[in-house]
Amino acid sequence: MKKLYIHFMPKADGDAGIWFANYKERISVVGPQLGLSAAQVTEQENAAANAMIAIDAADTKRKDLEEAVKVKNETRQTAMQVISRGVAIMKASADYQESLGSSLGIVGYSRVFDLNEIKPVIKAVAYPGRVAISFNLLVMKSVTVYSRIKGTYGWEKLGNDYASPYEDRRPLAVPQQAEIREYMAFYFNGKEDVGQQSDVVSAVFGG
């Protein structure tokens, strides 16, 4: 029988923050009982406090970033709705010329895509409780996302998604043991995967 050693320090930031707070509170009582000097107790308290501050700061920045991205997306969508109405009026004008439209950057263009060659571009970012896999759609409406643990073979299909990012909320394979998750994707035409496999990206997920 193989014994699995699990380190006392939680890996997930949320759990670690609670752990550091408890350690800081209790070390002044337990530390001297177990041989720590006053200076060593203070050193332990400061280390725990610094870790708590860093975790809280990172969590605040993460939430600020998520909120900023949400506001940005909503603002862009609203702006395009307003601008699209104005563009429709101008293009319906008898005086409209493509040169005028080009000066405003409102003349569209077409591109030809070979469905056998198209290849999605993806990026994986780990957050507490999830990994976000962002992707571009080009002319397609969906992607299929696959994953595996780094060092293993064979891809597990996670699912299809129609709007970036896809969120992988699967729990850790081994509780409290961080893992490196690899991801790749194909475009999906509604029936099957098409085109070329994306590059493989990875993220360290701690739960």
Describe the structure.
- This protein is of the alpha+beta class.
- The chain folds into 2 domains: about 10-110, no CATH class; about 120-205, Immunoglobulin-like (Sandwich).
- The chain is about 40% helix and about 20% strand.
- It contains 3 helices and 8 strands.
- The chain has helices at about 15-35, 40-90, 100-105, and strands at about 120-125, 130-135, 145-150, 155-160, 165-170, 180-190, 195, 200-205.
- The strands form 2 sheets. Strands 3, 4, 6, 7 and 8 form a 5-stranded antiparallel sheet that branches. It has a 3-stranded antiparallel sheet with strand order 1-2-5, with no helix packed on it.
- A hairpin with a 6-residue loop joins β3 (about 145-150) and β4 (about 155-160).
- α1 (about 15-35) runs antiparallel to α2 (about 40-90).
- The longest helix has about 55 residues, at about 40-90.
Overall form = elongated
Tell me the structural class: alpha+beta
Q: Could you list the spans in which at least 5 consecutive residues all have pLDDT below 50? A: none
Total of helices: 3
Q: Would you tell me the overall average pLDDT?
A: 91
Percentage of residues assigned to helices: 25-40%
Number of domains: 2
Strand proportion: 15-25%
Whole-Å distance between the termini? 26 Å
Largest sheet: 5 strands, antiparallel
Radius of gyration: 25 Å
- Secondary structure: number of strands: 8
Q: Which sequence of SSEs, written as H and E, runs from N to C? A: HHHEEEEEEEE
What attributes does this structure have?
207 residues; Immunoglobulin-like; 2 domains; 5-stranded antiparallel sheet; 3 helices; 40% helix; elongated
